[in-house]
Amino acid sequence: MAKTQLNVRLDEDTVEAARQAAGNRHMSLQEYIEHLVKSDTDPVRKAFLASAANVIEEFGDLIEERVREPRG
Q1: Chain-wide mean pLDDT for the chain?
Q2: Which of 32, 44, 54, 72 has a CA-to-CA distance to 23 between 20 and 30 Å?
Q3: Residue 49's domain spans which residues?
Q4: To which H or E segment does residue 55 belong?
Q5: Quick one: pLDDT at residue 70?
């Protein structure tokens, strides 16, 4: 796929945070930003997160209760 150059202005703290996050993931800054945009616009991811939110809303109390139960 062809690439298009994009110039973005960010404050220094945001740039440093992005560089650190990219480095932690062993990605270039370009790869990291591309990953963020793709993740944010992925319809499958959005559907999954909506479903997960529904599960937590419906069963969150039960899940918390089970987590607090002593194991043995």
Answers
A1: 92
A2: 44
A3: 42-71
A4: helix 43-68
A5: 81
Contact at 8 Å (CB) between 28 and 22? yes
Tokens of 57: 């809303």
Q: Give the Cα-Cα-Cα angle 62, 65, 48 (nearest 5 degrees).
A: 45
Burial class of residue 18 (count of CB atoms within 10 Å of its CB; 0-12, 13-18, 19+)? middle
**Total domain count for the chain?**
2
Note whether 46 and 32 are same-domain residues: no
Q: Is there a single domain that holds both residue 47 and residue 32? A: no
Tens of pLDDT, residue by residue over 15-42, are: 999 999 999 999 999 999 999 999 999 9
Phi, psi of 14 (to 5 degrees): -65, -40
Both 18 and 48 in a single domain? no
Model pTM?
0.63
